Amino acid sequence: MLLVIAIVLISIGTALTMNIYAIFDPFIENLGDIRDYNIAYYGATASIERANLALRYHDAGFEGEGGWKGQDEYGETSDHNNKQDFGSRFNIYGNGMKRNISSRISGDDNENNNNPVIPRSNDGNIDLGLRGVDSEHYNILGYNMTEEFKLFLDDGNDPYEESSSDIDIVSNLDAIKGKLRLPPEIKSSFSNRDLCDDTCDSIGDGITDDIVVNRILSGESSDGNFTINPQIDVNYDTGIVGTEDSAIREDVINSFSAYNLYFDTSKNPIEERTRLIEEPANHDIVPSNHDFLDKNFREIFDETEENLSIRFSLVNDLITSNIPSEANLYPFLEYQFEFEGPDEIPDRFFNISGVGQVGDYRVEIIQRKPTSQRTAASDFAIVF
């Protein structure tokens, strides 16, 4: 009798245990999934942090990778090869963590174009609600902001060492072609009104074709820092802008032909030309005693050692009339710049990817970090 009772109790216990296990088994399996996902997530987060640490030592145009690449393989510039314990803990097949940094644009990144273009195709920053025809291929140039384009590439390999010795100036830059246009969606709401370049003289200098966008080319050579401003070629007696003028004026905006800034061997950026005594100088170079005074653009680029860049900013209101009651004010321009000559140029952003993979879970986090940030208030040159 006791044996029967024991068998019954054991059967009941076994049944209860199996039922309880069946109830909790999915949660136990989920705990394993949660563990794997959390490890993968924090692996991706750690990869992003590691990438940002590497960027403390590198400049625009830097590209590199680190950590696990797959199975037991690591990238050429990985932390593993540099004897850093990053990613090697999960170096069994299928598990690991890695980072990737890219900040270059090539001609291959743009549709129907062999030259690098900023922004790359479909990567413009125009808000969706303000986008018109093809606006996804344009960026905003607004008031109180400066767009800076670095003209050098960081070829440093070690992610945690200073890369100043690995900077390559984009000296084969032949020209920058800019498409500057009024935002078509807003232009439509303004009854397709253009800027009043034929009738407005917003700065009162006698020239109706006002300067709209300022540009500054700057860099550093063995002779010191330098800045080259646009060439001004105007006749104030007649109000006519000359053919040698390289300022970005109203007639360039929405023009069928792009704005062209050439950097060839025949151009001396501060070459003297005949002009009236009251007219301004042509290109201004700061400081005025710099060795570049007698050199063309190609020589200037070849002798520039660091920090070559060009900056663009709005300098006048984008108005449709000089009569306040009839004037519309455009909030920004849309721009697209093509760089002729080089195969690749630095992007405006570091595109950072961090990946963590454990078991069946792969987590990837994407971060974009500007290669240069400045405001118009901090962007100026003083000419004496």
What are the salient characteristics of this protein?
3 helices, 384 residues, disordered C terminus, 22 strands, alpha+beta, six-stranded antiparallel sheet, 2 domains, five-stranded antiparallel sheet, 17% helix
Structural summary, described in words:
- The chain is of the alpha+beta class and 384 residues long.
- The chain has 2 domains: 2-101 and 356-370, no CATH class; 114-349 and 374-378, no CATH class.
- 17% of the residues lie in helices and 32% in strands.
- The protein has helices spanning 2-55, 184-189, 297-303; strands spanning 64-70, 73-74, 96-106, 117-118, 139-142, 146-150, 152-154, 167-169, 175-181, 211-221, 224-228, 234-235, 240-241, 248-249, 259-262, 285-286, 304-314, 318-319, 329-330, 332-340, 344-358, 361-370.
- The strands form 6 sheets. Strands 6, 10, 11, 14, 16 and 17 form a 6-stranded antiparallel β-sheet that branches. The chain has a 5-stranded antiparallel β-sheet with strand order 2-1-3-21-22. Strands 4, 5, 9, 15 and 20 form a 5-stranded antiparallel β-sheet that branches.
- A hairpin with a 2-residue loop joins strand 1 (64-70) and strand 2 (73-74).
- The radius of gyration is 30 Å and the shape is elongated.
- The termini are far apart.
